[in-house]
Amino acid sequence: MKNLTKLFIFAVATLVATSCTESKRSGNPIFEGWYADPEGVIFGDTYWVYPTWSKPFPEQLHFDAFSSKDLVTWTKHERIIDNTEIKWLNSALWAPSIIEKDGKYYLMFSCNNVKQGEEGGIGVAVADNPAGPFKDLLGKPLINDIINGAQPIDQFVFKDTDGTYYMYYGGWKHCNVCKLNDDFTGFVPFEDGELFKEITPGEYVEGPFMFIRDGKYYFMWSEGKWRQANYRVAYAIADNPLGPFESRGVILQTDEAIGTGAGHHSVMHNPRSGKYYIVYHRHPIGSTDGDDRRTCIDELRFDNEGNILPVKMTFEGVEADPLQ
Ligand code: FUB
C-alpha cells in the first residue's frame, strides 16, 4: 500500500512537471505594448530584442529594449536612448540594429523619416552595455542622403566570416550595401572605389536582414506596405554577401486566423539547441490602426536542401530555449 501511494504521488508529480514544462512558452506577442521592427540578437547567455516604439511619428523619440535568458520571460529596459541624447532627432526613431565589437555595443538607428535635403537618416550610438545608456557617436547622421533611390532607414549590420562589417539598408524599394570602417564612423570603398552598391532583390521594399547558415548567405527583406495586410517577408540565398540575390519567395505573411501584415523581422540561432527563430511584428486580427504592431516570435525551419520553410505563425510562440 505504501509503495502504491508512492507510485501514485510520483505519477502525479511527473504529470504536473510535464505539463508545466510544456506550458513554458513565450506566447505571442512576447511582451506588452506596440512594438515593431524587432531586431533579435544574442549576446552571451542572453537573448535581446530591440524594437521600434510603434506610435505616430512625432511621438517616436526613444527606444526600449527587452532581454530574456530563455525566450519565455522578458525584462524591459526602458529608454536605452532618446531625443535628449540624439540632438538631431525630431521624429520617427526607427528600426534599431545592434552589433557588438571589441566589447562595445553599436546601435544603429534611423531618424526623421528623411527626404532629400532634410537632416536625418541613419545614425550610430555606442554603449558599454547592451542595455545602454547609448551615446550618439557622431552627433549627426552617418548617412543623410538618398543614394540609389534608397531612403536611409532600416539599417542592418552584418559581420562576415572574414571580419568585414557590411551594412545593408534602405527604404522606398531600394536596398544598398556598404562596408563600415573600423570604428563605424564611416565607410571603406569596395574594390572599384564605390562606397554604396545597390543590391535590391525581387519585390524588396525595406527591412533587410542577413545571416549565414552552412556557408550560404541568406538575405531577407520585407515587401508590401507596413500598415497593410500585404506586408510580408521574402528571401534569397547567395554564396557571398553581395549577391546577386534572386528571390526564393515569401516565407512570412498574413494568416487571417492569427495576424496580418507580418514583417520587418530578424533571425536568431541558438547554437546549443540548433534552433532558429524569426522575430517579427504583426497586426492583431481586427485591429484597424496601422501603428498597432506587436512583436512576436516563431520557429524558422529549413528543408533538407536549406530552403526556408513557410513560417507558421502562432499565438503560443516558442518553447523555453536557454542559451546555456
Ligand atoms: O516602424 C517604422 C517603419 O515601418 C520601419 O522603418 C519600416 O521597416 C516599417 O516597418
How would you briefly describe this protein structure?
With 324 residues, the protein is mostly beta strands. The chain has one helix at 2-23, and strands at residues 35-43, 46-53, 62-68, 75-82, 94-101, 104-111, 121-127, 135-136, 156-159, 165-169, 176-180, 187-188, 197-198, 206-213, 216-223, 232-238, 247-252, 259-269, 276-284, 294-300. The radius of gyration is 21 Å and the shape is globular.
* Rg computed from alpha carbons, rounded to a whole number of angstroms: 21 Å
Largest sheet: 5 strands, antiparallel
Low-confidence stretches: 1-21
Query: How would the global form be characterised?
Result: globular
Question: Approximately how much helix is present in the residues?
Answer: under 10%
Q: In sequence order, what are the helices and strands, one letter per element?
A: HEEEEEEEEEEEEEEEEEEEE
What is the first-to-last residue Cα distance? 42 Å
Query: Strand-residue fraction?
Result: 35-45%
Briefly note the structural class of the backbone.
Answer: mainly beta
Name the bound molecules: beta-L-arabinofuranose
In DSSP terms (H or I, runs of 4 or more residues), the helix count works out at 1
> What does the average pLDDT come to?
94
**Overall number of strands:** 20
